[in-house]
Amino acid sequence: MSLIPNQQPEDRELSNYKLETPSTEFKRAQKLKQKLEGSHVARIVLLLLAIMGTSMVIGEGILTPSISVLSAVSGISTSLGQDAAVGITIAILAVLFYVQRFGTDKVGFSFAPIILVWFLFIGGIGLYNLFKYDIGVLRAFNPKYIYDYFKRNGKEGWLSLGGVFLCITGSQAMFADLGHFNVRSIQISFSCITCPAIVVAYIGQAAFLRKFPEKVANTFYDSVPDPLYWPTFVVAFAAAIIASQAMISGAFSIISQAISLGCFPRVRVVHTSVKHQGQVYIPEVNYMFMIACIVVCAAFKTTEKICHAYGMAVIGDMMITTTLASLIMLVLWKKSRWRVGVFFLGFGFIEIVYFSSQLTKFTAGGYLPIVSAMFLTAVMGIWHYVHKERYMFELKNKVSSAYLNEVANNPDVRRVPGIGLLYELILGHSNILFNH
């Protein structure tokens, strides 16, 4: 996504661009693509949307470690106090960001088994609570109870959607590194392990709350059987570290891609793995993240307030993703309009409902991701504008082909044996330094 061209006009004449059989969807996609490319306003709007979504994900790189580690440490907050839990969380976050420089290449093999154990733990505990306390909560799968719930609670039911939405946060983070896995592996792992374990865990907590409604403040740890409390705490702590690491690495990867597109100030990008290209470390961004996470934990102190900010960031990112995905379905995948319409209206309606509920938490912490995203969007937008202006200046002052022919035919020009390579951002033109 860039205002600077990344394709030469001659590329459109290649046969590879004409392999598709002309159809109604193909012609419509080409027409829409030409309109978008020919409209300066449309290109700016798409760029701002992409930058805003990127800024939201970068903001999640700050909120995810804070809420994940603080949630895991909350298991000991009842005995040590909330201030002690916040202090321990800050110390853990400082260590986590300090070791980023070493990369995850040597310890990455342990991430999947730990997360698998975590899913087995929460799924097993959920089944235990379900059969022990109230198996009747399975009736909640009946869509009729959705209508009954909102009819009974009215506005309070709508406001509660802000908390309900937190059950699916984290799903947006997996899109950052999908390229490392094939489609089948993702489908199998999500459908057979991740989704069932999470659903059963929440069902078990619902059954537990039916028996002990007064323990809603710390439901997860209160619902864990006593013999499994400390093993669950250890696994939860390890899973929180891995979840934080995944979001931090995803933010590094996105920033690295933004730098390549000229949409982020140039910073030093260190590749921490000799096998995997996507594993990068950005020192300046890393320490800015660390300071921001420490400030967030010290200022909010509880996961409840951080949840308000986290939910706002996630739903904003999802809305932008749905919008851009719908455009991709039309232009690149060439899907029919009714399919795209069903997708956009269906998911868009659900996301707008959740977003409207999250807006009520704006003053309670929801302002943080909005303000940070607007700041990052301004920085990235200004940087890209300057990058584009420099490109246009170099384009106007490019070395002409007539000058190159004159130099080539000039017998007074002494030639040094060998081949010289000049890096050039302007497609199809010689570097301006060639004059010297």
Instruction: Give the CATH architecture of the largest domain.
Output: Up-down Bundle
Radius of gyration from CA coordinates? 26 Å
CATH topology name of the largest domain, in short, is Amino acid/polyamine transporter I
So what's the overall shape?
Answer: globular
What's the main sheet like? 2 strands, antiparallel
- The number of distinct structural domains comes to 2
At the first level of CATH, the class of the largest domain is Mainly Alpha
Query: What is the count of β-strands?
Result: 2
Helix-residue proportion: 55-70%
Strand content: under 5%
Order of strands, widest sheet: 1-2
Tally the helices. Answer: 16
Overall pLDDT metric: 84
Low-confidence stretches: none
Secondary-structure map:
Elements: H1 24-38, H2 40-73, H3 77-80, H4 82-98, H5 111-133, H6 144-153, H7 155-159, H8 161-164, H9 183-211, H10 219-222, H11 229-260, E1 270-271, E2 280-281, H12 283-300, H13 303-331, H14 337-359, H15 367-396, H16 401-409
Antiparallel strand pairs: 1-2
Helix pairs in contact: 2-4, 2-11, 2-12, 2-13, 2-15, 4-12, 5-9, 5-11, 13-14, 13-15
